[in-house]
Structures are given as structure tokens and as C-alpha cells.
Design brief:
Elements: H1 9-21, H2 28-43, H3 67-76, H4 78-86, E1 96-100, H5 103-119, E2 128-134, E3 137-145, E4 161-165, E5 176-180, H6 189-200, E6 203-204, E7 207-214, E8 217-226, H7 230-235, E9 243-246, H8 250-256, E10 275-277, H9 280-283, H10 287-301, H11 311-324, E11 335-340, E12 345-350, H12 363-369, H13 374-381, H14 389-399, H15 403-407, H16 423-434, H17 436-444, H18 459-462, E13 469-473, E14 478-483, E15 489-496, E16 499-508, E17 519-522, E18 533-539, E19 542-547, E20 572-576, E21 579-582, E22 585-589, E23 593-602, E24 605-609, E25 615-624, E26 631-635, E27 643-646, E28 652-661, E29 667-668, E30 671-672, E31 675-680, E32 683-692, E33 698-703, E34 706-717, E35 720-725, E36 728-739, E37 744-747, E38 750-769, E39 773-791, E40 795-814, E41 825-829, E42 832-833, E43 839-841, E44 846-849, E45 852-853, H19 861-864
Parallel strand pairs: 1-7, 6-12, 21-23, 22-24, 23-25, 24-26, 25-27, 25-28, 26-28, 27-31, 28-32, 31-33, 32-34, 33-35, 34-36, 35-37, 36-38, 37-38, 38-39, 39-40, 40-41, 40-42, 40-43, 41-44
Antiparallel strand pairs: 1-2, 2-3, 3-4, 4-5, 5-8, 7-8, 9-10, 9-11, 11-12, 13-14, 14-17, 15-16, 15-18, 18-19, 20-21, 29-30, 44-45
């Protein structure tokens, strides 16, 4: 289906005027759609501006613009618009994305749009096949209409689409993304706000821009927003993990929006009950994921559960939205929550922020008027317990130093947009800074409002309830039945696997305000029974049925990162508040040891751990041994689970003259780490540390840290020796031998390496990936599978290196992950590579030897990893 039309600007303006003149004479819905069609058709022709509002908005003009004001804005800029078109401006750096959808499939999308216009919201859109041409290549894709409300689909031009590329393909580095007109994503405010938060360390939506055409029809410059995925998380320096959504859009779209006499105390879409995860079916096949899913759902039911949330990232988002005077991005509809597998806390992923506006009254009145979700209720209600409250606010203030540049960074695509100034934000910042005492007093006294329930539903209201119950099944047979109404509901029958059960005619009491106590039914329906249990209910002769939630687990949800465990440790003395020290000597530890604060261990200390024991320090460590009397961590004979240091960015982990033996990796309850020795966050100082005989996935794993490593020695490992994820720093004078995986595996890191030795390594001496930057000088790799592999947007330089006795290649550059759209490069200078066929350079990567490029060639990366030394 190919549509190609160009109307003159005069005709479009005339059509707009005629439509507006008859606006009050005809069906408003029909006219609204027609106006949007004409307006979006005009915007498809690249008129030089992003939206009519942005022609006149100089920063934070939050007044509603009806169609008359939009027309006025366009008319007052008509000369500039026409001149822009006459100049035939071209965006040479803007990529073209051409979407082709077969007529029958495109008709499904248009039918979904028609239904959405009729309902006033989008419901259950069809997913259809499409072909996308981009940068000379063709991609197979799945496409659907997206967006709850009409700004996404009222016009048949420039509709919002959700795209998923097949076979791992990427466009602009995105595998899954959404296409929006700029105003549907609050341009430029959303992009500037999220970019600022991301700079501070939060997880946020990522936007790019491209010229879009659909079935030959130009749709103009549109926003391309990456959807949340494993790749999305990785590019923001995060390990793949569960991403939660709390509540859903059903109540305000399907109930409040359509029911005139709605019942205000209906718990439909209640955020304490509703929780889903992305790729739910896939993720719940993994038992650890199901444990974590269970844990989060159970914690959310508790009256107080602030430890479930990362304080720093949530307060950063809260303070930023306060300065912006807009909490739209904090809502349940616009936020998702990443479960950090290292902290076992939820971190917000924000999107869809609106424009900022001026605080025009006393700060406390503005604060009291804010609507906050359950998540922020929990974080703020516990904030008075945290020290250094001011640091969170001050850090956010600093993030806005360059906000004006972010607001205007894409004006080259929309040159007629008014320049956006940050005056309003600066005024808000000054006001709140002066009134910090009011802000902190409000925070310290913040309390979660009590739920108020008055009366029961009427018979008329009862007809409109979409569900009566929320039901959770556990693998031990329990059914937890939550009534969504404050009045009794009858369970008529329970169906399992298509067959009726013995459980019927149960009376479920109405919920009590401020309580989420369920009706407990013990059944013989045991094991994992996802999508197998249906509960049929009735209320005032209105029958409904509900599918039970995916099965939750009854065991294994312990969180070792909450609380402490230091019982039966006579060798451990308390030196100060949150400060502990081990008495020198030889000691036996037969149970997990968990410390909040700092831990010091001195020379001449030998700790022997049983197989199920481990050490966790939530704070910082100072392990200072000597060359003649090192600190030794050993097992009682069959391995032990190792140590984990969980730090914030201000903490230090100091390990000098320490020996670790026979670690197997720390796995307990919800916590599962790949490292025998694991350190997350903070500043890591390692000198003369030896790790021997580890059977963990990584003998040493350091994540998100600043590192200074000298004299590290790792030998006899079953897998990788040193896995360094998202770190910055130095590694010098270190040695790795008899390694059954990689000697050093760097992901997303910036590291200088000097005087390194790796021998008898099965896989790679140095694996450099996920946009790392590495400079290495002086070293020897010998008896090795691969000397160095540089991949996935990484850059490396080797100087004075010797690589000998390699099985596959001495030096490789290739692309394993398609979502990195930057070339990988390796530069070798004054290096000795002994052996035949030392180099492998894949097409679209760079490999040079003393300034001369190695010949590139096509490489089947899947084949590389399917056999031989690199087999995974």
C-alpha cells in the first residue's frame, strides 16, 4: 500500500480554518480526527519545527494550546515556514527508516486505530509483520500500533508504532523501539530530563531521531525511543535482570474513563496487588527469577517495605521532578523498576516527562499537592532515617548545570523551534534552595495517607466492575484471594486445567481499609501451574472470572542483604558504631557472616569457612596483611562460598597481601553471584592478592568500581579469572595461570594495563567488550586459546606485547552483539606475535599493526563460539 501526497501550504491552512469553523456544527470526534489528519499531514512534510507549541514556547510554557492557538502560532510563523521549505533544507546526518507493511497487515493497524478512536483508548492492538529498510539493509520486524491515548493515533499519519526486529537485528543500536511524533514524547522536555537523570546514574528512556516513511508516505522527523530489553540495560551498564511494572492502565482507561458512576474505592489496578515483569513467561522459567518475583510481590503487600527500593536513585528522580515541578514521569504508567541483582533493590526506569513549570506559591503547598505512588510513599516515609539528606538534593542541583544545552540539542532538526531557556528551572532551583528547611521538614514528617472507604457499591455500580478478585497461587497449594471491593464477594467455583474443582461457594470478605490481608484457601493444586487456575465469582448477581497470577514459590525467598549475622563470632570485636575488627589468629566459620558497616582484618589472620558459609560486608573493608604473614581465607575442605563487598561510591575496599583459596561462588536465597570474590561499587585497592583453586564462574568479579590493582595473581580456576564490569582504573604487575576460561574479561570498562602475564589459558588472555576502552603495555601471553579479542564497540591499543603459542588467533576484532553501532578497534604497536595466521579482523571493525591495516573479512561469529577454545 503506497500513499504519496503533497498539499500546498495554502490549501492546508485553508482546510484547517474551514474545519475549525465547523467544529461546533458537526460530530466533534469526526472533526477532531479530521483536524489531526490535516495537521499531521502537514507536519509529515518537514516544516522545520517539531510542534506548533514549540514555535512559541521559550521554555516551560505549560498553558494548554487548543487548535486555535496552534493555528495562530503557525500563522504568525508562516513566512519562516515557507522560506524554510523553499530552501529545501536537508538533514544530512539524519538516518532514514522506511517501514513497509503489506496491505492486509496495515489494514489491521488501521482497524485497531478505528476501534481506539471509538473507545477513546487503545486496547489489545494486533502485532503484524513488516519489513524495514535502513542504511542499505533490510530487516524483518514485528510492528503494532501503540499509545494509550489519541495523541498517538488520532491521525492516520505519524501514528505511534512499536517495533521489534527479528533475528537480533538493530537500527540505531536498538532492537526494540517505539516511533513517536515528537509531541507524543513531550519534546524536548522528556529528552532533556531523562538525559540529565541518566547522567546522574539513573536508568532512563533513550531517544534518537530519524526520518520515517511508512508504505512510501513520508511521516517526517520522528522520535525513536528504545524499549526496555536486555540490550537496553546492558548499554546503561546493568546486568540483565527482572524489570517490574506496578499497577496497569486498566482502571483509568477501561473503568474510570468509561464508567460515569464509578465506585471510588474499587481496588482494580491497585499497585500493591498488580505486578508484572517484562518477558514474564520466559523469565519465570528460571527458578531464581521466580523467587525474586515472589519476593517483590510479597514485600509490596507489607504496610512498610522501604528496604525494597534504592534510596539514591529514587530520591534523585524525586528531586529532579520537584525542580521540574512535574511528577508525570514518576507515575506507575511511566515508570518501570529494575531489580538490581547485586543490591536486591528496585531502581526506577523513568520515561515520558512533561515540560517544567514555575513554582508560583509557597513550597509546602506545592509539596502537599503532589500525588505520589506507593513506591515513592515508601521511600519518602523512611527518608528521615537516612543520614546526609542534603547530599541527594545537592547532587541533583549539579545535574542541571547544562540543562539548556540538552533542551536545544536537537534544534538542528527543528530550526524554527523557539530556543528553550532554563530561566524557570533556575528560579525553581533558587526557591527550593532558599526553602530547603521547609523541604527537609516536609520530608522528615512525610507519612503515607490512610486509605478511606465510605460505603459499599450500589447495584448500578456493581454492573460495571471488570473483576471482583485478585488471586495468587503458591506451589504448596495455597490460594491467596484478595477482594477488590469492601463488600462480600462469592467465589462460585474454581477451575483447574479446564476441570471444575471441589472448591466452590466461598464467601470472600470485603477488604478492610489500609489492609491487604487475603482470604487463604489451602488446595491440593500444587507445583507450578501458570495460566491453569480460573476463579469464577459473583457480586450482586454479576458474574466475572479471573485468571490466577503465575505461581509463586513458598521457599527460598531469604534476602541475605537485609539485616546482619554476627552471632557466635568471639573473634569479632566492635570498634565503633558500624565498625568491626577480627582478632588475629586462626578461626573457623561455619555459618554465613553478614556485617553492616566496615570490617578490618589484620596480618596473621587465617579464616577457615565451611562449605555453606560466606562473608558479606555492606560497607567497606580493610584487609591489611603482610608479605610474611598474609591474611588467608580458606575452606574446611570442600570449598566455601566466598566474600561479597557491597559498597556505595564513597566506600573503599582495601586488600593488601591476602590469599583466597577454593571459593565456589556465593548463592543464597535471592542472592546469586558469579564471583568467588565479588565487590560491587566503591573504590577498590588491591595489592599482592592471590586467588587459588576457584570453581566459581569468576574467581574475582568487580562491578561498577574505581580500581587500582597491583600484584594480583590468580591460578587454577575452573572458569574466568578476573571479570571486571563497568570499572575505571589500572591493573599492573599481575599474573594469571592455568585458567579454564578468560584471564581478564572487561565489559564497559576504561582500564590501563601494564606488565601483565597470562599463561596456560584455555580461552582468551584478554576479552574486551561492551564499549570498553583499554590501553595495555608490556606483557606476555603464552599457551593460550586467543591472545586478545576486542568486540562490541570497544577500543584497545597494545604496545610492547608478546603473544605466543596461541590455538586460534593472537588478535581478533569482531562484533558479537549487534546493538553496539560503534566500530570495534585494536591497534598493535611494537608487538611480537609468534605463529601462523595471527589476526582476525571482521568487516566493519579496525585492526592495525604498526599503522598498517589488517585485511578485513566476513566472519561467522556464531561459528566462533560454537566450537573450539571459544565454545560457550
Amino acid at each position: 500500500m503506497v500513499i504519496k501526497s503533497r498539499k500546498s501550504h495554502l490549501f492546508i491552512y485553508s482546510a484547517l480554518i474551514i474545519l475549525i469553523a465547523f467544529y461546533f456544527s458537526f460530530d466533534r470526534k469526526v472533526l477532531t480526527v479530521a483536524v489531526h489528519d490535516v495537521y499531521s499531514g502537514f507536519m509529515s512534510d518537514d516544516p522545520g519545527f517539531s510542534t506548533a507549541r514549540n514555535l512559541v514556547d521559550t521554555g516551560g510554557d505549560n498553558k494548554h494550546q487548543n487548535i486555535f492557538l496552534k493555528l495562530q502560532s503557525m500563522a504568525s510563523n508562516a513566512y519562516e515556514i515557507i522560506l524554510y521549505k523553499l530552501r529545501n533544507n536537508q538533514h544530512n546526518d539524519l538516518k532514514n527508516i522506511d517501514v513497509s507493511i503489506k496491505f492486509s497487515n496495515f489494514k489491521k493497524i488501521l482497524n485497531d486505530r478505528a476501534k481506539a478512536i471509538e473507545k477513546d483508548y487503545l486496547d489489545g492492538p494486533s502485532v503484524v509483520n513488516a519489513t524495514i529498510n535502513y542504511d542499505g539493509r533490510s530487516y524483518k520486524a514485528k510492528v503494532r500500533l501503540k499509545g494509550d491515548l489519541g495523541d498517538h493515533w488520532l491521525s492516520k499519519h505519524r501514528m505511534s508504532l512499536r517495533v521489534s526486529l527479528k533475528n537480533g537485528g538493530t537500527i540505531l543500536g536498538f532492537n526494540k523501539f517505539s516511533i513517536h511524533k515528537p509531541r507524543a514524547r513531550q519534546y524536548p522536555y522528556e529528552q532533556a530530563f531523562q538525559g540529565t537523570l541518566r547522567q546522574g546514574g539513573n536508568i532512563t528512556a533513550i531517544h534518537k531521531y530519524a526520518s520515517i516513511s511508512v508504505n512510501g508516505e513520508d511521516w517526517g522527523v520522528m522520535s525513536i525511543e528504545e524499549n526496555i530489553s536486555k540490550e537496553f540495560l546492558e548499554k546503561q551498564r546493568l546486568k540483565d535482570s527482572l524489570v517490574f511494572r506496578f499497577s496497569d492502565d486498566k482502571k483509568w482507561l477501561r473503568y474510570n474513563k468509561t464508567v460515569i458512576d464509578n465506585f471510588p474505592y474499587y481496588r482494580y489496578s491497585d499497585s500493591k496487588l498488580i505486578a508484572t515483569i517484562s518477558k514474564q513467561r520466559k523469565h519465570l522459567k528460571n527458578e531464581l527469577n521466580r523467587k525474586r518475583y515472589t519476593y517483590v510481590l510479597e514485600e509490596r503487600l507489607k504496610t512498610h517495605h522501604p528496604k525494597l527500593y534504592s534510596v539514591e536513585s529514587h530520591m534523585r528522580a524525586f528531586f529532579a521532578s520537584l525542580l521540574w515541578r512535574n511528577q508525570h514521569t514518576l507515575s506507575d504508567s511511566n515508570s518501570r523498576y529494575y531489580l538490581n541483582p547485586y543490591t536486591l533493590q528496585l531502581e526506577p526506569i523513568t520515561s515520558d516527562q512533561g515540560m517544567f513549570s514555575l513554582i508560583t506559591e509557597e513550597l509546602d503547598k506545592d509539596l502537599n499537592r503532589m500525588y505520589l505512588t506507593e513506591t515513592y510513599d515508601q521511600v519518602l516515609s523512611s527518608f528521615s532515617d537516612y543520614k546526609n539528606k542534603n547530599k541527594y538534593f545537592v547532587e541533583v542541583l549539579g545535574l542541571f548545570d547544562n540543562i539548556e544545552a540538552k533542551l536545544n540539542q536537537y534544534r538542528k532538526y527543528f530550526p524554527l523551534d523557539a530556543y528553550k531557556q532554563d530561566d524557570i528551572l533556575l528560579q525553581n532551583m533558587d526557591l527550593i534552595t532558599k526553602d530547603k528547611a521547609i523541604l527537609y521538614k516536609w520530608l522528615e514528617s512525610y507519612r503515607i495517607n490512610d486509605e478511606k472507604v465510605k460505603g459499599n457499591p450500589t447495584n448500578a455500580q456493581a454492573k460495571d466492575f471488570l473483576d471482583h478478585l485478585h488471586v495468587r497461587h503458591y506451589d504448596d497449594g495455597r490460594l491467596l484471594i484478595f477482594n477488590l471491593l469492601p463488600d462480600e464477594v462469592r467465589v462460585n467455583r474454581i477451575v483447574f486445567g479446564g476441570n471444575e474443582t471441589e472448591y466452590e461457594n466461598l464467601i470472600i470478605p470485603g477488604y478492610v481499609a489500609n489492609s491487604y490481608e487475603p482470604y487463604l484457601l489451602q488446595t491440593n493444586i500444587k507445583g507450578i501451574q501458570d495460566d491453569q487456575i480460573i476463579i469464577n465469582s459473583s457480586y450482586k448477581n454479576n458474574k466475572r472470572s479471573i485468571l490466577a497470577y503465575p505461581t509463586l514459590l513458598s521457599k527460598g525467598m531469604s534476602n541475605p542483604l537485609i539485616g546482619s549475622s554476627i552471632s557466635n563470632t568471639s573473634f569479632l570485636i566492635k570498634k565503633d558504631v558500624d565498625s568491626w575488627e577480627v582478632i588475629p589468629g586462626e578461626w573457623t566459620i561455619k555459618s554465613p557472616m553478614i556485617i553492616n558497616g566496615s570490617l578490618r582484618i589484620n596480618e596473621d589472620t587465617h579464616l577457615n569457612f565451611s562449605r555453606d558459609s560466606y562473608l558479606i560486608v555492606k560497607g567497606e573493608i580493610e584487609f591489611i596483611g603482610s608479605k610474611s604473614r598474609p591474611i588467608i581465607f580458606d575452606s574446611l575442605g570442600s570449598g566455601w562460598k566466598g566474600i561479597y563487598v557491597l559498597s556505595d561510591k564513597h566506600n573503599k575496599s582495601i586488600l593488601h597481601n591476602v590469599i583466597f583459596k577454593d571459593t565456589i561462588g556465593l548463592s543464597d536465597g535471592l542472592l546469586s553471584l558469579s564471583g568467588g570474590v565479588s565487590i560491587y561499587g566503591g573504590n577498590v585497592d588491591i595489592k599482592e592478592v592471590s586467588i587459588e583453586g576457584s570453581t566459581a564462574e569468576d574467581a574475582l568479579n568487580i562491578i561498577n568500581s574505581s580500581i587500582n590493582i597491583s600484584g594480583l595473581k590468580i591460578k587454577n580456576t575452573i572458569s574466568d579469572a578476573f571479570d571486571c564490569d563497568y570499572c575505571i582504573g589500572k591493573i599492573i604487575n599481575s599474573k594469571f595461570s592455568y585458567i579454564n576460561g578468560d584471564a581478564i574479561d572487561l565489559s564497559g570498562s576504561e582500564v590501563e594495563i601494564k606488565n601483565i602475564n597470562a599463561s596456560n589459558v584455555k580461552d582468551k588472555g584478554l576479552s574486551i567488550g561492551e564499549a570498553s576502552t583499554v590501553d595495555i603495555k608490556d606483557g606476555v601471553f603464552s599457551n593460550i586459546g586467543v591472545g586478545v579479542a576486542v568486540k562490541d564497540g570497544s577500543k584497545a591499543s597494545f604496545v610492547n606485547m608478546t603473544i605466543r603459542n596461541y590455538d586460534l588467533y593472537a588478535a581478533m576484532t569482531y562484533s558479537k552483539k549487534k546493538h553496539y553501532d560503534v566500530f570495534s578497534s585494536l591497534k598493535l604497536k611494537n608487538c611480537l606475535l609468534e605463529g601462523d595466521n595471527p589476526y582476525l579482523r571482521q568487516v566493519n571493525t579496525l585492526l592495525t599493526v604498526d599503522g598498517v591495516e589488517v585485511e578485513e573479512r566476513e566472519v561467522d561469529v556464531k561459528d566462533l563460539y560454537s566450537s573450539g577454545v571459544m565454545k560457550k
